[in-house]
Amino acid sequence: MSPYHRELESERDRTIGSRPLSEGNGEPEECKPRIRRGLYNMSIHEGNVIEMIVCATGIPTPTVKWYKDGQEIIGDGPDGKRVIFTDERGIHHLVIVNASPEDEGDYSLEATNKLGSAKTEGSLNIIRPRHVADSDDRGGMPFPPGFVRQLKNKHVFNHMPTIFDCLVVGHPAPEVEWFHNGKKIIPGGRIKIQSCGGGSHALIILDTTLEDAGEYVAVAKNSHGTASSSAVLDVTVPFLDNIKFNGEIDVTPYLTEEYGFKKLNTASLPTPPDRGPFIKEVTGHYLTLSWIPTKRAPPRYPQVTYVIEIRELPEKEWTLLDYNIPEPVCKVRNLEIGKSYQFRVRAENIYGISDPSPASPPSRLMAPPQPVFDRRTNKVIPLLDPYAERALDLKYSEQYACAPWFSPGVVEKRYCAENDTLTIILNVSGFPDPDIKWKFRGWDIDTSSPTSKCKVYTYGGTETTLAITGFSKENVGQYQCFAKNEYGEAQQNVLVDLATRPNFIQSLTNKTFSSAQPMRLDVRVEGEPFPELKWMKEWRPIVESSRIKFVQDGPFLCSLIINDPMWRDSGIYSCVAVNDAGQATTSCTVTVEAEGDYNDVELPRRRVTIESRRVRELYEISEKDEK
């Protein structure tokens, strides 16, 4: 089941049971639109089939519109390139056949009814294949068909769409036929067959039923041979499809306040791989990822597939790379040379998708090989496998050559507490991969001695890490990292100082305030670097507002000021000081005595005595008035 199908069944079921009934008449209560299952960022290979699915609910039923880059999308009909339809369950689909670079952009869906609107957005990125010259340009050498991308097993819910896709090479270009349980598939109705440029072929089942389960085979033929690829489709009918919500049975056990149905059993979700993927092979055209399979202990469903996510360093967002991978190995193609990437894996079954695994070490491709030239015939020798591994050619790699440079955003002053471990991570780029050397105060750092506290790790030639265990005063100073190749040299300096634990010179003390005056709590704190202060009341964070202010006066004094305090401001106040060396805490009890009708405790009143002498000095009082 693909990532954009996960939880779609539960969302569909939630849609049925999420209509609250108004009192008295038993009719559903009107509500504004809500997106139950939205769009997300996708990266799809050029020539593949794309399907975007959105579940939107609301009463009255909202009308929906699809947009690309702010412009409304109009469907091209059932046999066109872009197909827009809403199935019988009210789920909205946008299918794009034979994806091309023109389909890249930001997509959105807006659902509207008379009470309001809701919107979901996501971007589509088209991964362009490496350009391979036509066979005629390479001498016209024929070769039999071969599957570069095989069919993958599928497991979907009843009435969900299914897509089988593959990538075929061969010269002349092979023809592909599809078979289901040994019978040839004839396209028509809900079954479509697409043949796209670049050898991409797809079988699309718009509305999958139980009769569609079984083995599917794609057979590629040309005049020089035949090749085939097969996969199994498993179809499951959800239990809730058999429940009628017409009052015949009590559906209360299946309902919740928030979603309308009971949530999925998390015990049935698969667990992610314990360790991140590792790079098994790197060539000029692709790299091979492998990972330890996930655990399949009961009651988890035994059929588990994997999802690969990718991000470009330094630390960009994770995006979907591939899905429905049946085995713990995957070839990643169409990466850009000179850029560093990280990968992580998720496990998926019919109940949902797991959390991600740890990320892989950074990696990048080498320069692609130069085409082989036959001097006898003065023609280019074609490669039977367009992704075959070839040695680097120095002349070809010169166009990718560049001097080393360090990624920006490095914190040039760091702190480390005594006896802690200092870790400095730097990202460096350059081609060929530069040689990396670390120095301390101008001296080479000894990392080879078994008693040395310093270790240097380099991943993929692009990320270097310096780790110092048991940091002490002797390790305080400037560290330099040098990256050098034949085209230049780069240097990055990092100054490291000893961090000291925060200490409260003046702690909080118990106080009583009147609501007629501002309330102020003062602390004096020291530490290196100067700690970050967090104020809390009853161990919950306090946020600044128009009434509450955090003030720092001088290098040590920090205050919490509350204007117009109220009786409910009474309680236990704490101040936590945090820096790289640790943290310190101080607390006190504050009592606010309110005035007026809300005063629970009377304030003692002072007796004011007015002397007659002073009154006579201020006013002229006659003897009659005194009597």
TrEMBL record:
<feature type="domain" description="Ig-like">
    <location>
        <begin position="408"/>
        <end position="497"/>
    </location>
</feature>
<dbReference type="Pfam" id="PF07679">
    <property type="entry name" value="I-set"/>
</dbReference>
<feature type="domain" description="Ig-like">
    <location>
        <begin position="33"/>
        <end position="125"/>
    </location>
</feature>
<dbReference type="InterPro" id="IPR036179">
    <property type="entry name" value="Ig-like_dom_sf"/>
</dbReference>
<feature type="region of interest" description="Disordered">
    <location>
        <begin position="1"/>
        <end position="31"/>
    </location>
</feature>
<dbReference type="InterPro" id="IPR003599">
    <property type="entry name" value="Ig_sub"/>
</dbReference>
<protein>
    <submittedName>
        <fullName>Ig-like domain-containing protein</fullName>
    </submittedName>
</protein>
<feature type="compositionally biased region" description="Basic and acidic residues">
    <location>
        <begin position="1"/>
        <end position="16"/>
    </location>
</feature>
<feature type="domain" description="Ig-like">
    <location>
        <begin position="145"/>
        <end position="234"/>
    </location>
</feature>
<dbReference type="InterPro" id="IPR003598">
    <property type="entry name" value="Ig_sub2"/>
</dbReference>
<keyword id="KW-0393">Immunoglobulin domain</keyword>
<dbReference type="GO" id="GO:0019899">
    <property type="term" value="F:enzyme binding"/>
</dbReference>
<comment type="similarity">
    <text>Belongs to the protein kinase superfamily. CAMK Ser/Thr protein kinase family.</text>
</comment>
<dbReference type="GO" id="GO:0031672">
    <property type="term" value="C:A band"/>
</dbReference>
<keyword id="KW-1015">Disulfide bond</keyword>
<dbReference type="GO" id="GO:0045989">
    <property type="term" value="P:positive regulation of striated muscle contraction"/>
</dbReference>
<dbReference type="InterPro" id="IPR036116">
    <property type="entry name" value="FN3_sf"/>
</dbReference>
<feature type="domain" description="Fibronectin type-III">
    <location>
        <begin position="273"/>
        <end position="369"/>
    </location>
</feature>
<feature type="domain" description="Ig-like">
    <location>
        <begin position="502"/>
        <end position="591"/>
    </location>
</feature>
<dbReference type="InterPro" id="IPR003961">
    <property type="entry name" value="FN3_dom"/>
</dbReference>
<dbReference type="InterPro" id="IPR007110">
    <property type="entry name" value="Ig-like_dom"/>
</dbReference>
<dbReference type="GO" id="GO:0004672">
    <property type="term" value="F:protein kinase activity"/>
</dbReference>
<keyword id="KW-0677">Repeat</keyword>
<keyword id="KW-0963">Cytoplasm</keyword>
<dbReference type="InterPro" id="IPR013783">
    <property type="entry name" value="Ig-like_fold"/>
</dbReference>
<dbReference type="InterPro" id="IPR013098">
    <property type="entry name" value="Ig_I-set"/>
</dbReference>
<dbReference type="Pfam" id="PF00041">
    <property type="entry name" value="fn3"/>
</dbReference>
<dbReference type="GO" id="GO:0060298">
    <property type="term" value="P:positive regulation of sarcomere organization"/>
</dbReference>
<dbReference type="GO" id="GO:0040017">
    <property type="term" value="P:positive regulation of locomotion"/>
</dbReference>
